[in-house]
């Protein structure tokens, strides 16, 4: 189930059906779950999309479900649906990393807007992850010496300084620099630094 979709978890069948109709009319794929237990039993780490989670349900509550998802390192954005008395709990969930919460009754467009933002957030996370994987794959192709040279390039050192520090010729440094840029798919030290920002070098 790698297609991005909204997972609606609510023990009220009428609410599930109403939300499904709203989402489908706006072109949002969704899957319905009658309870947290069923969702958690089926959940897979590669699922994409978001979760719309009722905070109060029979059996496992939405908050307990959320805590379990956090323990499993689930990255899907979670939007809580709350009753008036549940707002303090929902605010607490936000502090733990929930995406948003909506207090009942809420307008159709209000929920759709939040869910679309949650789906966009998840999509951006996947794009960033894919970018990191690409960088990691390129880094693996560097030799130990190229990694040494790259580290010094990123420190802003000139070729002559790098040559002196590593005990190699300027021409060798230039050759290493060219190979590093080629393997990493960049044209300058600035591009290289930008690529590696937030990535293990």
Short description:
One of its GO terms (molecular function) is DNA binding. The chain is α/β, with parallel strands linked by helices. It has helices at 13-25, 36-42, 62-71, 87-96, 108-140, 144-154, 159-166, 170-184, 189-196, and strands at residues 5-9, 30-33, 49-54, 78-82, 100-103.
List the helices and strands and how they pair.
Blueprint: E1 5-9, H1 13-25, E2 30-33, H2 36-42, E3 49-54, H3 62-71, E4 78-82, H4 87-96, E5 100-103, H5 108-140, H6 144-154, H7 159-166, H8 170-184, H9 189-196
Helix pairs in contact: 6-8, 7-8
Pfam family, one: Response_reg
Modified residues (4-aspartylphosphate): 54
Domain Response regulatory: 5-119
